[in-house]
Amino acid sequence: MSCSDAPSHNLFVYGSILEPAVAAVILDRPADTVPALLHGYHKYKLKGRPYPCIVPFESGKVNGKVITGVSDAELNKFDVTEGSEYERVTVEVVRMDNSEKMKVETYVWVNKDDPSMYGEWDYEEWRVIHADKFVEAFREVLEWNKNPNGKTREDIVKSLGKRKMSSSDQSPSHNVFVYGSFQEPAVVGLILECTPVIVSAQLHGFHRYRLKGRLHPCIAPLKTGVIDGKVLTGLTDAQLENLDMIEGDEYVRKTVEVLLTDTSEKMQVEAFIWANKDDPDMYGEWDFEEWKLLHMEKFIEASEKFIEWKKNPDGRSREEFAKFVEEDPPFRGKKMATSEQSPSYNVFVYGSFQEPAVVSLILEFTPVIVSAQLHGFHLYRLKGRLHPCIAPFESGLVNGKVLTGLTEAQLKNLDMIQGAEYVRKTVEVVLTETSEKMEVEALIWANKDDPDMYGEWNFEEWKRLHMDKFIEASKKFIEWKKNPDSKTREEFEKFVHEDPPVTTNSLSLSHSRTMTSSNQSPSHNVFVYGSFQEPSVVNLILECDPVTISAQLHGYHLYRLKGRLHPCISPSENGLINGKILTGLTDAQLENLDMIEGDEYVRKTVEVVLTETSEKMQVETFVWANKDDPHLYGEWDFEEWKKLHMEKFIEASKKFIEWKKNPDGRSREEFVKFVEEDITAA
């Protein structure tokens, strides 16, 4: 480093130099950095190049880092590595750590109308595929700068770009496009006995089919088709032989041309194509995410068996391995009998039974599950219950799953757990993957005019808030069924009920403040919009896990605060804030929120709109006391906060609870400082 009186520079970086190892090669030391945001620019991909560029774009913003204290000599190195296609300019960025503005230098693409610019460059994808290569590339460019030896910078860059992605220059390597189970690193890592460099790509002119009776897909030519997959790069002959053996003679390995997703470059690769392009067993479209959910573990086990078999066949054939990842032909029609003597049933489920962890406990096995849609019904919430119901609704549509091949005993378990309030009926569903129609059974709410039905039940919300409770309930149900011990089904049913849910009648502060631990204790509903949206923070502060509901507050804006990591809200005529309602809080829990917010906020009653039902509701919220505060600016971002500051807030919340229980002479201000930062001068 230069001496203290030598001039130094602050440099905003946004591409490959974000990688510490790359920056260290250029500086010949670790970089000192602070996170920053550059407004008025966009970060583009460049066709045929792995690095990005930025050019002015009025509504754009670029996340990056400022490398501080760069000497003149170090800045000259950056100039050399960036080359003449970039120009170094002075811009103003906003530091993410303290919200201060800062004058810095950065590299902007000279040709602002370059037709090679497209999309948005992704740092994480670049790290996985190119980071190691860039460390080497910059090192060679800097060596060239010291000793050109008759070569130009362009000669060095071109020579680096032409290098193949192989394990060595002496050994031939292969690039193979994969589209099924081999997209999963855990599977392909076992088969190849290494983890290759993997690049996203698209193959045009082919379609990815399901195969009847098999868990794996195949591809065959289709003029308008397009397949998203991966290229396994730099495979050795031995690794390619492993793929050949596992695919077998039903596939033919051919050379095809794919389009790399990140650069739009074309690339010649090999791929395994189904030999019989007219095979009647091909249908629909294979789904990678569904395969991961249902079959990935089986394939991992199969891959381990394949490697064992290859090392020691012991008289066994490849066919024994192949059978391990095949199934009997899939269902056709209503029943999926395991034998002609044992009838089986296919049941459409739409609530908690979509969750494998719940349904596996109830059925005492994991069934084959297929995605489906039921038309002409609606999925309702039920007041005072955590589970939903369905009832006829002319224009309705319910997304769910078909549990296939259930025995009579398993069907009886479903009947018992649903009880007399549901009626089992035969309905027609449409299979999501194939658009085929299928007769199945479904449990429908007996009272189609029940006034307790409202809104729309949400599976993701249920998973987040109630799934653990349902898993415990399912275990209790199985115990009860095996040994009722004078208990009734009603005792089990109460386990998954709650006090009446939020409505404008049950939660409004003007309606007796319900949802309490007892009728004698008042409770409060509080709209939160910042760090208290995060369960791991609010649970620590409240010392409980409250029921939360999504809501919107109109007429306010969510501001950042200079020098603080938390936001505030203040009136704004056209403003809209998305947040959560913490329901049923006790006086003591509300006091905790009051203490942590402090006297810079004022707790007021406001009206919000519930996201799920569009009902209006009176709640309390914390509004910034000084609506003309000059420190208010911009818009606070929850996802950015989660990524950068959540862990600090969790630690702060623990400290707050410790302090509240034992102040030990310390003041609230000591806690507050923990989640604030000094306002650093630019």
TrEMBL record:
<dbReference type="InterPro" id="IPR045038">
    <property type="entry name" value="AIG2-like"/>
</dbReference>
<protein>
    <recommendedName>
        <fullName>Putative gamma-glutamylcyclotransferase</fullName>
    </recommendedName>
</protein>
<dbReference type="GO" id="GO:0016746">
    <property type="term" value="F:acyltransferase activity"/>
</dbReference>
<comment type="function">
    <text>Putative gamma-glutamylcyclotransferase.</text>
</comment>
<dbReference type="InterPro" id="IPR013024">
    <property type="entry name" value="GGCT-like"/>
</dbReference>
<dbReference type="InterPro" id="IPR009288">
    <property type="entry name" value="AIG2-like_dom"/>
</dbReference>
<keyword id="KW-0012">Acyltransferase</keyword>
<comment type="similarity">
    <text>Belongs to the gamma-glutamylcyclotransferase family.</text>
</comment>
<feature type="domain" description="Gamma-glutamylcyclotransferase AIG2-like">
    <location>
        <begin position="347"/>
        <end position="458"/>
    </location>
</feature>
<dbReference type="InterPro" id="IPR036568">
    <property type="entry name" value="GGCT-like_sf"/>
</dbReference>
<feature type="domain" description="Gamma-glutamylcyclotransferase AIG2-like">
    <location>
        <begin position="11"/>
        <end position="122"/>
    </location>
</feature>
<keyword id="KW-0808">Transferase</keyword>
<feature type="domain" description="Gamma-glutamylcyclotransferase AIG2-like">
    <location>
        <begin position="526"/>
        <end position="637"/>
    </location>
</feature>
<feature type="domain" description="Gamma-glutamylcyclotransferase AIG2-like">
    <location>
        <begin position="176"/>
        <end position="287"/>
    </location>
</feature>
<dbReference type="Pfam" id="PF06094">
    <property type="entry name" value="GGACT"/>
</dbReference>
